[in-house]
Structures are given as C-alpha cells and as structure tokens.
Amino acid sequence: MAGFSRCSVASTAAKTPTSAAATFSYLIRALSPSFSSSSSTFDPETDLNRGCPGVGKGTYASRLSNLLGVPHIATGDLVRDELASSGPLSSQLKEIVNQGKLVSDEIIIDLLSKRLEKGEAKGESGFILDGFPRTVRQAEILEGVTDIDLVINLKLREEALLAKCLGRRICSECGGNYNVASIDIKAENGSPGMYMAPLPPPPECASKLITRPDDTEEIVKKRLRVYQTMTQPVEDFYRSRGKLVEFDLPGGILESWPKLLRALNLEDHDDKQSAAA
Ligand code: AMP
C-alpha cells in the first residue's frame, strides 16, 4: 500500500500575552493583520511545528519565517546545539537522538523556554516553531500558554520521506539544508507518480556538507515509528479543535511552495515581498 505519512506543521498565532504556566514565561504579540486559510484564520506570527522526519518542514518553516519576518525556532536545532555544547545534558541527548527517540517533555520544554525568553529579551515578537509540539503533553502545555490558530498537516509518502532523509546534507558552516536525492516514484496501482528534484548546495557550501547521524535508514525508520505513536495523536489534538489543515505535498519545493502559499492565502504576501525585493 502506498500510504501517506502525515506530518504536522502547526501554525499558531499568539495574540495575547501569556499569563503563564509554570514552564513558559514569554510574551508574544501579534505583528500584523491576520490572514486566513481555508479553515481558519491565523497571523503571520506563526508557530510552525515540524513532525514527521524528512517531510521538509524545516525548509518550509524557514521560507515562511523569511516571508513573514518572524524567527524560525527548530527544537531539533536546540537539541543539537545542546548536544554540541558538552554541557551536562550532552551525552544523554546524544544517546536519545542517535537512537531516533524523543527527548523528554521536560528537557525539550526547558530548552524551548530558554530560547523563547532570550528572544523576548531581544524584543522578538512571534515565531515559527519547528518540531514542537511532538507529544500531546507538549501540545497541552503550549495550549496553556498561547492560542494556536492553525496547524498544517504536510503529507508525503513514506518512501519519499525515507529517501529525503537519506539524501539530506547540511552545511557544517552556515547550517543550510540541502538534498542530494533525486526522487522519482512511478505511478502505480492508482497512486500518482512523484518527482522531487535534488536541492543542491551553493558552491560555497558544497565542500562543507555533512549528514546528520540520525539520518541512517535504520534510525529514520525508527523515527517514523516514533512519529506514528507519539506525534500522530497531536494531529488529532488539533483536528478536534478545528485547527488542522491537510496539505499533500505534490512534489519538491518548487512545485509545492506556491501551492502551500495558496492554501494559506499567502500569495499576496509573497507577491508584495517579491515586488519590494
Ligand atoms: P528534528 O531535527 O526535528 O528531526 O529533531 C531531531 C531530534 O531532536 C528528534 O529525533 C528528537 O530526538 C529531538 N527532538 C526535537 N524536537 C523534539 C520535541 N519537540 N520533543 C522531543 N524530542 C525532540
């Protein structure tokens, strides 16, 4: 069966200062007038969560962050920074991440809270969250401190997810995310074919590419299973609140990006930004 793996991208617009729950103490303000999706309304001050490994949520989050002028905060990056810091959590995190497991809710919320507090101190208002929440508990805590306006559920076939993870390359200097995989899935048994072109690095990054230690076939398959058990229920959490927008990625970024903007009613935003550039 050519099933789809469902990967959630949650957009939250926090309109009110949070009168804070224990773990979070940050203030998020609306940046600009809201724009609407087909099923909901949300502000460019969005939180966007990366769920399923390999779907490209980081790439879409980063693009939306540039488009909307809000910071992009990936909890996976926070974990990797902590891991590289040789701090007290470092070896514990390394073991968890390299086994494809989730870090505990307490640790991830602590890392995220610190990042949000730093941002708040710098005057950041709003953000795009990437990779959070990944458990219902995390979603409940988030809901306790801010309003989620929209969750985008990015969907991609599992075979493409695996190929994308295995083809992922990161520039060790600038952190840019690229992909060497050329994904060409033939139409079969009523399922349409799909082509995703590689996303090559610019020449200045080409000699500095590294792969993530958790992007091996065995660990990616484990992460997909963890996603199904731990993170898929988060989709239901937002679905039951009427905040979930389903989006089947039709192909690579060039094909998908304009369609995603259309689904979010953000085309005008993109046009204005291109005109201003
Ligand atoms: P990512 O870059 O989003 O794929 O995250 C890399 C790894 O960081 C994951 O496989 C988890 O081990 C950990 N991680 C990132 N975000 C979370 C989260 N919200 N909850 C638990 N673990 C996380």
TrEMBL record:
Subunit structure: Monomer.
EC number: 2.7.4.3
Kinase found in the keyword field: yes
Entry annotated with the keyword Hydrolase: no
Pfam families linked: ADK
First-level EC class: transferase
Reactions this protein catalyses: AMP + ATP = 2 ADP
Protein name: adenylate kinase
Similarity comment: Belongs to the adenylate kinase family.
Keywords carried by this UniProt record: Kinase, Nucleotide-binding, Transferase
Organism annotation: Hibiscus sabdariffa (roselle)
